[in-house]
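User: Hey, quick favor. My workstation is busy. Could you predict this chain's structure for me?
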Amino acid sequence: MAIKKTSKQVGLQYGFRSGLEESIAKKLTSQGVSFTFEDLVLLYIKPQRESKYTPDFLLSNGIIIESKGRFVTADRQKHILVKAQHPDKDIRFVFSNSRSRITKLSATTYGDWCNKHGFKYSDREIPVEWTKEPKKQIAS
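Assistant: No problem, here it is.
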């Protein structure tokens, strides 16, 4: 005896992610309309727009300091872009707590993120050593 699948099981089998997708597929099938589901992939480029980043502090030796209590996704994405487009800039973070997780469900901390992306960081204050580093070349 064959076990009848629920409509949700059938939908998952075909990769439907919503009830609407599933109901459309059922309607097309009942009308005898031939179709495929998510077989076509179109590439596109997200439009770029120029944005501005204003660092919190610029030390006299050229080191840029960004202070962060919360380090949300938009900030992290911004700093990856800024670093990629301005590799000559030395951007560092001072966190309220670098052991805070980037999201409630992630084990990754702010400090882990900095290590992964090549940013120096500290907690609560700028280390004296940073202020005593030789002057950086400041490009406009």
